[in-house]
Amino acid sequence: MLTHLKWLRAAPRPANMLCSQMVKRTCKNVSAFEKVLSVPKPKNAPAAGQLKIPHMISQREQKLNEGMVYEGFQCERVEYIPDFELTSYTLRHEGTGTEFWYLDRKDTNNVFSINFRTTPFDSTGLPHILEHLALCGSKKFPVRDPFFKMLNRSVATFMNAMTGPDYTLYPFSTMNEVDFRNLQRIYLDAVFRPNLDYLDFLQEGWRLEYSDLRNRESELVIKGVVYNEMKGAFSENSQVFGQNLLNNMLPNHTYGHVSGGNPLEIPKLTHTDLVEFHRKYYHPSNARIYCYGSFDVNKTLAFVNKKYLNQYECIDNSYSRIPGQPRWSEPRNVHISSRLDNMGAAFDRQNQIAIALLMCDMTDIQESFELNVLSEVLIRGPNSAFYKSLIEPNFSGGYNQSTGYSADCKDTAFVVGLQDLRVEDFKRVSELFDRTVCKTIENGFEQGHVESILHNLELSLKHQSPHFGNALLFNSTALWNHDGDVVSNLRVSEMIARLRANLTRNRHYLQEKMMRYFANNTHRLTLTMSPDELYEENFKQAEAEMLKQKINALDKQQSEEIYQNGLKLEASQKAVPNTDLLPCLTISDVKEPPKWPKISTTTIQEVPTQVCKVPTNEITYLKCLFNITGLSRDEVMLVPLFCNVINDMGTEEHDYREFDKLVLSKTAGIDFKLNFVENIYDAKSYRLGLMMTTHALDKNVPDMFALCQELLLNFKLDDIDRLKMLIENYISNISVGIASSGHLYAMLSSSALVTDAAKLKSMLSGVDHIDFMKTFVKQNGTAEICDKLKAIGRKVFNKTNMRAAINSSESYQPTAVQHYKSFLDSLPAQEKTKSSNELQLLEPSCQHYIMNIPVNYCAKAFFAVPYLHHDHPTLRVLAKLVSAKYLLPVVREQNGAYGAGAKISSDGIFSFYSYRDPHSIKTLAAFDNTYEWLQAENDKLDQQTLFEAKLGVLQQLDSPIAPGNIGIDYFLYEVSQEMFVKYRSRMLSVTVEELRSVIDKYFKEQPKHYGKCILGPANEKLEQETKQKWKIIA
Ligand SMILES: [Zn+2]
Q: Which residue ranges does the record assign to the Peptidase M16C associated domain (predicted)?
């Protein structure tokens, strides 16, 4: 969707350790609702004495009254929103007109954000570079990059900044009030009084620099964090496609430009333009402030008013308003070219197409809501019209990433697109599209299907995510940015009820919408994209040409300035930052571990069963884990595919359409996933599992178990044509997104060179999996694959090798367990299979996956110690320290990569990684030099540095967990709450001496078992310069 076009301040960091799953690979159902509103709080307050989940408290009281003035803000509107059990307060600053939206909810994960409407009129990436620069130091905090420094002085559960097509926002969330106030001070000063230093502009934006800083004769090159970030972003074809879709669909105003920056345009930006843009757009009258949670709002209001807003005059902000896109009288077609993806489909199939239709003004919230539902009905799952007409004939690799309803701009859009198809089929798509629209208008919609979609939406309203405040912010930002009614937009149940009433009143309601928005809509764009073998070459030439022009235009004085600036920047990057100016938490702020409800384990019909009573808001969560370690290696290799198709083929009783409808009308879906767990006690063995997860409203729990039972016992894989289609879509989907998560793939691949278990993991979910699947499908017919998959299902689905976890409310729990027992009655018992495999360590090696992209993702991994080893918490602290104090300054700031870091996993593998990195050899050398750096910094390892690194670890350890997932670490890894608390306090007690001792123990010598990996362009000098043998995989 167009909404994916957001540029972030910080590169994605690898997921939390224990819960880290394998790289996410598939997007089977395109669902616009997935990102929508997930979460409310329990209806019933927990009984006295019962443990409360820290981020869910109850009770409600009205804190502010309409018409009253609080700290310079007039309270204009107060509404209670029952769907999410929150009270919404809309305030306006009397002096500047700044809107302040406060959502009072008994949730301790508090959120604060400042949003600006930023409308660029070129593609220099102005708002994006400004977003980076604002967080590079301000009047009160004149510290180099306080944003990154604060990452380690806080226990934020989220901290970032992002640039959308027409807005820039600065959000953070935290459960700690001291932290909340600290970050608020940093963020407000950053946006209203940033230093916007010229040297920071050179570092974050773009600069000309001598490739050898001290040699005026060396060649000049272009550098810059955003410059590289955007080169990396557009190395993913789906990003190029999405960006072009937006620019061509809404070409008339700001959306015709690339807000993140086109790498070839970025070097046109001047520092003066940037300062001027800040002055104009970062005015309080053009700002919106969002505040969510349970902390005292009066303190926030007072601070915002006294320290910032009351020093400004009100200005008219209409300059940043965005007009609606004038409607076209004729449809348009646009063709673009893309990079040839050497990991993607065959050359002649690497094309994409999308048909996009402009829908309504997004501030018409009921209309937009209904069009969103209509889009789901048209696209999602095997009962939808477009799935039947575009996907089932199987001439493509399935829906592309742009597919769905998009409500991120002033005008909303419906997009349906296909990936991996032949150019010859472009015309066919257009014809099929028109025919589908006509047919749907003629025949109407099946009520059961529409109802199943509405049920799924209602269920998603009840499902609680731990980051609800952030989800609300992100879902409201675009609408708010256009002065839409964000408060009414939260009344989802009311919108559903209105839609239901409309559907009852008028049988042709949706058909009439189809008529208006689909059949009679001339604002229609058909965007097609084909690979061009010269794409990369053309880009390089254009880049070289631009560089040449820049250089030719330089006079002697300017060349000298470039030379001097290079030296100045290097000096400032290497200077010791004065971080004492920044606030920091203290140990007493973070002493207490989070408290979670108790987990109990019992054995029911010999099945180990974990039960957790937790306020779930009338939902019961079920996880069944089948041990599959006993499968043959060949069978294991097919388990990811098995997981992807097993719930999509129907059962003996219901065909796949009926079954899908049933599942969607009773549950949130039944999902299957391969699970890989190393022994965290000794790292000598590992287990493979297949996990089934689902959840349903308590009233639907009997149906939920019945549907699971039906699927496990009577799955059906006989429809060869359908299976063939699902396999082909699966292969297309696993090849998408490698460049955007390249660091995860690189780490997976470097770990694969360390242990045989990690190697298997990479074969099952890393880059190697793509190749394996392609080859496998070439060598085996669909009928053969079908037989193999059936055999897997028969072997795996039994209660002998199963464990389960049920999370439900205290009152419903006995009933849930009753239904679970009858479910177990129906499952067959089989022989117990072997429960774990021995783990082997491998000889050191290096691997380079050649990718046709202009940036690298580098990783190095070595075997250290697993989670329960005494040294593990110390190494984890060290990983944070090395990331913040060494890798970010060197690999990001000095060498221009967008991200870099180090981590240790529960399986004991310690990894280094870089993200969107212009270098590879230099970065790997930096990884290797960690010990030398640590030695050089030895005397600087003080209490504060150590404590900051511990806070970094705490951010992961204490991050909030959704009620449905409480106990998952125990379920998957057998880490009990007691073990967790012990680990946490052990981590907090790590001393400088212990740190020094692990440095010597694990970093002094090159480790016995390590691997290095690069994902990136070919590099002939690799072996010569690294003096190592590399296995090249092209
Ligand atoms: Zn960025």
A: 529-776
Which fold would CATH assign to domain 865-1006?
A: Cytochrome Bc1 Complex; Chain A, domain 1 (3.30.830)
Token digits for 797? 């689905």
**Given a cut of 80, is residue 26 above it in pLDDT?**
no
> 767-779 vs 756-765: helix axis angle to the nearest 10?
70
Q: What class has domain 610-830? A: alpha beta
CATH code matching the domain that covers 68-322+538-574, chosen among 3.60.21.10, 3.30.830.10, 3.30.450.40, 3.40.50.300? 3.30.830.10
- Across the chain, mean pLDDT equals 91
Q: What average pLDDT does this structure show over 841-857? A: 94
Task: Give catalytic status of residue 131 as yes or no.
Answer: yes
| Ligand 1 centroid, distance to 903 Cα (angstroms) | 22
Q: What is the CA radius of gyration of the chain?
A: 28
Distance 141 CA to ligand 1 centre (A): 21
Which superfamily does CATH assign the domain made up of 341-466+478-531 to?
Metalloenzyme, LuxS/M16 peptidase-like (3.30.830.10)
Quickly count: other Cβ atoms within 10 Å of residue 240's Cβ. Answer: 19
Q: Which amino acid is at 327?
A: R
Say whether 534 sits in a helix, a strand or coil.
coil
Residues bordering ligand 1, an ion, CB closer than 5 Å: 7, 229
How much distance in Å is there from the Cα of 887 to the middle of ligand 1? 18
Q: What is the pLDDT of residues 894-943, one digit of tens each?
A: 888 889 999 999 999 999 999 999 999 999 999 999 999 999 988 888 99
pLDDT for 10: 55
- Ligand 1 centroid to Cα of residue 127, in Å, is 10
| 128 Cα to the center of ligand 1, angstroms | 6
Q: pLDDT per residue over 285-295, tens digit each?
A: 999 999 999 99
Q: How far apart are CA 974 and CA 961, in angstroms?
A: 17
Q: Per residue, what are the HEC states of 1013-1032?
A: EEEECCCCCHHHHHCCCCEE
pLDDT tens string 937-969: 888 889 999 999 999 999 999 989 999 999 999
Active-site residue among 85, 131, 209, 618? 131
Beta bridge partners of 688: 676
Question: In angstroms, rounded to a whole number, what is the distance separating the alpha carbons of residues 476 and 37?
Answer: 10
Query: pLDDT tens digits, residue range 165-210?
Result: 999 999 999 999 999 999 999 999 999 999 999 999 999 999 999 9
Residue 547 has pLDDT above 80, yes or no: yes
